[in-house]
């Protein structure tokens, strides 16, 4: 299902499952945001419990992809404090008196104000004075330790799972003493590099782990790609979910043709990494998180989330097909191009974008640029949103090339460079009180 040839047009199919089962998630990063609160910590803990410390996870341990959990810099002691404060009133958190909250803590440690020894972390013996220069300087033996401890924690949970749910508060100490093992301690990875953000360091660590253990980091298909019957919705665009007719460029035939063309391209399989704590607080922190996400989007499908948003990169120079999850995702969305966008075509939106395709279009004369026009406050109109960012013009002002060949895209890239990075955001549905 993957299309890895250099210059080939690629298609990313997005149907997020991290709202519930999280089968696709291969990595979770908790960022050190000053505005992190109960939602961020609870969401991280939900993902950790779902992927590693639940009966479902233990039953499916043989079939689910490996998932690593990484904390960035000073967020780890904050997470520890949050859990400790709530363990008495939230019995499910007592689990973390015994099991680790992450596999590794990584960063330049400029915001790590406590002692890693006090926090129960372990500094690898290979760490130079002042830390490793870059993430690439971390020895493979350290990667092996992270991977082994990750697997050990999951295996030990399966061993004691029968005791965990019903253990009273006084019984946790005994359980801890019976099974406590230094192998469960997270590694504390001090990286000197000041050119990369802590988020970038975390993603690079995850990439190295995936590369070292490819057989244990299989990419899980989104549900829509698991059967030919389910995949048909990608060819049609699905049904209409918003009946308003006040939008633009909503030509059913043209939209269907776009979906059919996209479906002819093999789906690119990328591991999913969820980042919690990217939004809120410092503006430069938010922009840096988006930039880092874009810089690594060729190696992983990286999703930035908070209470209100799900944000990810579209496939540059190719296709992105997004299957909305109506139980968890609202209809309000945005398509944000970070730079001058001369070519784009979408389907499934109330206000579609058709630019530089040589087709009659309300939006063809718009200047799509960061500082000019971007598509915000848009609405999902169909079950599937298709975004076509292929480069079909051999030069500015010429007619579109044959859209069916990958060669045209490669030639165009060589002549004019790829278009700007494009980010898709969708509003998350809020849980009702008591729901």
From TrEMBL:
GO terms for biological process: thiamine diphosphate biosynthetic process. SUPFAM superfamilies: Thiamin pyrophosphokinase, catalytic domain, Thiamin pyrophosphokinase, substrate-binding domain. The keyword ATP-binding applies. Gene3D superfamilies: Thiamin pyrophosphokinase, catalytic domain. SMART domains: TPK_B1_binding. InterPro entries: Thiamin_PyroPKinase_B1-bd (IPR007373), TPK_B1-bd_sf (IPR036371), TPK_catalytic_sf (IPR036759). Pfam families: TPK_B1_binding (PF04265). One of its GO terms (molecular function) is kinase activity. It comes from the Eukaryota. Keywords: ATP-binding, Kinase, Nucleotide-binding, Transferase. Residues 318-393 form the Thiamin pyrophosphokinase thiamin-binding domain. This is Thiamin pyrophosphokinase, vitamin B1 binding domain containing protein, putative. It comes from Trypanosoma equiperdum.
